[in-house]
Amino acid sequence: MSKILVIAEHLNGKLNPSTARAVSAATAIKAETIDVLVLSDKVDAIAKEAAKIQGISRVFTVERAENAHPLASMLAPQIAKAAANYSHVFVPSTTFGKDVAPRAAALLGVAQISDVMSAEGSHTFKRPIYAGNAIITVEADPSQTVVATIRTASWPTAADNANSAPIEALDLDVALPTHTRFVELKQGKSDRPDLQSASRVVSGGRGVGSKENFEIIYKFADKIGAAVGASRAAVDAGYVPNELQVGQTGKIIAPELYIAIGISGAIQHLTGIKDAGTIVAINKDAEAPIFEVADIGLVGDLFKLIPELEQAIG
């Protein structure tokens, strides 16, 4: 039977929802055991959050000063050591997961499986290739530990359980490297919902026209309580910072509602929203590719349509 270790992603003492999505992937395999590993310098609050996720057996914690920041060089040796008795190690396919999982896989001497979007069996998975234009089936060697990043947009968030799973401190005898040190973390600060976990997202593209004009996107997003995203064209043009980029080379998201404003719909962008619930497109070009995937399309000037929508919302 499969025993799966899910690596918890967290920041500033809070568990990222991506962890619960990785647990959903583990649950799909019908594993005998699903444990969560929390690596931090202060584990208590994070571990208590993780313990509420439905489907997990235990939460293991490793509290060390070196775990204050998510440095892959520090975390990977601990993950590899903790994974000794597990058949699978699952990590969210986020910036965090894409950083740490390859190092952990290398230390375990196995090849990593990226962006798992479905499980056909305990060692058979499906993942996207060619910018999402094709889906490939990958079969892992049952004799080796499976290290996989989980495409969070393809999995639901595991529900909270009424009873919390037991929490146990783990003592890992592993030497950590000394050649890496944390300097600082630079990230955009916003009161808006997180782009990767928001249920509603409003994105703007090149059609918005300028950084100043992008205020109409921010205003509309705030009106409906949505996160803000952007196409690569808008990011490259300097309208918004790159952490807002949605698409193949940006963030892969799956909100319940996605509103694309002034976005033509290049395949790289569509890859990032293929799992969205309802897609609404606003573009003055009736032939824009975005309309081929949109559930609702509005053809017209965004600077006229958005104020009308805001007025209709009230």
From TrEMBL:
The keyword Electron transport applies. Residues 188-207 are annotated as: Disordered. SMART domains: ETF. InterPro entries: DHS-like_NAD/FAD-binding_dom (IPR029035), ETF_a/b_N (IPR014730), ETF_a/FixB (IPR001308), ETF_alpha_N (IPR033947), ETF_asu_C (IPR014731), ETF_asu_C_CS (IPR018206), Rossmann-like_a/b/a_fold (IPR014729). Residues 4-186 form the Electron transfer flavoprotein alpha/beta-subunit N-terminal domain. Keywords: Electron transport, FAD, Flavoprotein, Transport. Belongs to the ETF alpha-subunit/FixB family. PANTHER family: ELECTRON TRANSFER FLAVOPROTEIN ALPHA (PTHR43153), ELECTRON TRANSFER FLAVOPROTEIN SUBUNIT ALPHA, MITOCHONDRIAL (PTHR43153:SF1). This is Electron transfer flavoprotein subunit beta. It comes from Dyella nitratireducens.
